[in-house]
Structures
1.
Amino acid sequence: MEGTEALDRVRSSLLELDRALKGTDLEHQAAQAVGALDQFQAGYYDFREICDNLYDGIHITDGEGKVLFINQAYTRTTGIRPAEILGRKVADIEAEGVLYRGSVTEQVLKRRERVNSVAIILKLDKEVLVTGNPVFDGAGNIKLVVTNTRDFPELKRLEQRLLTMAEESKKVNEELAYLRRQQTGHKQIYYRSEAMRQVMEVVRTVSAADVTVLITGESGTGKELVANEVYQRSERRDKPFIKVNCAAIPSELLESELFGYEEGAFTGARRMGKAGMFELANTGVILLDEIGDMPLPLQTKLLRVLQERELMRIGGSKPVKLDIRVIASTNKDLREEIKGGRFREDLFYRLNVVPIALKPLRERREDIPLLAEEFCRAYSKKYGKSVLLSPDGMDLLIEYHWPGNIRELENLIERLVVTNDSGPIARSSVFRALNPNGLPFSPSETSQTLKAQVGAFERELILHTLEREGSLRKAARVLGVDHSTLVKKCRQYNRP
Ligand SMILES: Nc1ncnc2c1ncn2[C@@H]1O[C@H](COP(=O)(O)OP(=O)(O)OP(=O)(O)O)[C@@H](O)[C@H]1O
């Protein structure tokens, strides 16, 4: 019988008694008994309500282990209803072997102290985590045992989930560190020219200071490589380094990519919103590559973000504080862009705190031999070969005007290593690699007169034919000139 039912019965018996005793000497005592019961009942209802609103299952026995009370959560967790256990002794319930095993109440009664243990709910075939506490009377006897029961599998699931998440996050962190290393890759910067020596001097001095850097130069001159170097030498080298190519992202997406958005900011916005590149780079460095291609309205927003060092996601209302170092790069002449009204002058000054201008390769030809040798070495290693450049092959590289700068040189060397056997690469192979479509040799920009350019072309043509045909006589036949003419030309070009 449930406690509340029992109380109701006692109350109605008392009321009956009260009525029967009306007018007798005992009338007053009967009325007092009804009042005391009412008070007790009110307290019991409060207690029940509180217990039924607890998340944990509550199970209370007297000092003999007789079950006095269970709350709703206990029934929810164990499937055991009040009618099955109220008024019964825990030892008997356990001996029956139907409802539960491993009673914590029994252990508390024996050990007279708090017990944490796992009990098995036979009824649902599951484990629960139980904590039992003894409640003592003034004489030191146990008058109650109060236990709380929690779904053990749920805890276990949470623990398991936590473990999996910890493992996943460890893996993600390792992957992140790997990708970061790969992305910035510690590629060495090779140079011999005075121009590059000065650039590296600036890189070394400004990297540690947290200043904004603007790197300019034609495509392929090494702007990204220099940006990597600034990051690697900065205090933020272990923090995020996010690169954004402002020209590669469609202008209508660039704003949300850079600054992020809140949920519901626009149709198609992701649930929960999305952090932009600036937020991802927070505490680290952001490289705004091809900044010259950023649309004007976005330049205004960027300027505000750089000035205030905080941003607002699209559709957001809470500003996000930024602690970020900015490196910008472009192959455009920003002063020309300003003149043409395509770039904001105030943004230019904000970015141009430390300008680093990279010269095109044709204006620092001293770097070509070192770069070519290093690329030869690196690609030989990659392809398991041992390829070198012949001295006259190298001369060709030094003369070439390199519109694609170092990227073009690197790609060319890779092609040469792949297509040549180990050993020195002949001048003719370099020539063919530089002229894959059989187009005339691209002359150096320094040989400007027609005579000089024709001379350079004739020289290449003769040397190339000689190399291919293997003898002066055969080359003269192919070129349709006398043998003596060819000998004379060879002498003129310092060739035997
Ligand atoms: N001094 C150098 N030493 C070694 N490698 C270099 C050097 N300069 C550039 N490179 C290599 O040349 C290639 C092009 O360089 P990078 O991408 O940095 O140029 P960029 O100026 O950023 O080009 P773009 O403007 O097209 O993005 C890269 O593979 C880079 O590693």
2.
Amino acid sequence: MMQTLTLPAPAKLNLFLHITGRRADGYHLLQTLFVFLDFADEITLTVRSDGAIRRPAGADNVPEAEDLTVRAARLLQEVTGCPLGADIQVLKRIPMGGGLGGGSSDAASVLQGLNRLWQCHLDENALAALGLRLGADVPVFVRGHAAWAEGVGEQLTPVVLPNSWYVVIHPKVHVPTAELFSSPHLTRDSPAITLATFHGGAGLNAFQPVVEKRYPEVAEAINWLSRYSTAKLTGSGSCLFAPVSSKQEGEKILKSLPNKWFGFVAEGANISPLHQKLAIMPTLYN
Ligand SMILES: C[C@](O)(CO)[C@H](O)COP(=O)(O)OP(=O)(O)OC[C@H]1O[C@@H](n2ccc(N)nc2=O)[C@H](O)[C@@H]1O
Ligand SMILES: Nc1ncnc2c1ncn2[C@@H]1O[C@H](COP(=O)(O)OP(=O)(O)OP(=O)(O)O)[C@@H](O)[C@H]1O
């Protein structure tokens, strides 16, 4: 039986994000387009026979019990009654709280990985439903296909997007998602758009005007990146991105990035790097 598995947990971008309404429970109805990046955290899972879930290495400042990887493992244990445990090592590369979905992606990789290591045999629908209990962004990472999303982000329609490279910038500012969703200044009644109108140039990030106003550092970074290409916020920020024609063009732009910010170039992926890896694993574990 396989005992250890190392899996990527990729970042995502929201290529646009509109808020179209609000549910009775306060959650917002969205339209968004998710694409994955070939820029990822790395999760190493090792089976424990004593049933304990431990996180020997992981995100700084995130207490073990609150880590989405630990919560994902405990949830899977709870619903399947699996007597096995796991050590979960998380090598963080994705800036935290930046709208790149790192925590959600880590959780999805744990669900997919432990489902195999523990041989729980939950199908993808069951894993996505478990993921949704951990966060609105988890299901898309569980499913692993670029997607048009509606509802709170869980109604996913797979799409194939043209290949693209992106410059991503983290202005080193933490923007709390829940605080932004509660802003009175958010546009909450955007008319619904379609993939065709997105490709025709429609699609903004509803959080962007509010974030630019509250966080001048983010506005400054957006202005800087806009000199080179169309810059937009991803998720609720604070990271921003812009499409570029090649890796080289992206690297050239980053050469003049002010030191105070962090940036990287990454390629968009229709199939998540997690699923690319799962697809080449021995069929016994697929
Ligand atoms: C902004 C996005 O990243 C876009 O992909 C997601 O919608 C946010 O997903 P997430 O970080 O997984 O968010 P969650 O942990 O589920 O929710 C954090 C908080 O944001 C608010 N929230 C979240 C999602 C949503 N559709 N409506 C909301 O109002 C809720 O107050 C919630 O308590
Ligand atoms: N494994 C983890 N990695 C990162 N953050 C985690 C993890 N587990 C819990 N968290 C908590 O989740 C918060 C949000 O982290 P994350 O990196 O997913 O944000 P994000 O990229 O803004 O996500 P989103 O786009 O879903 O809003 C962090 O500030 C942290 O407190």
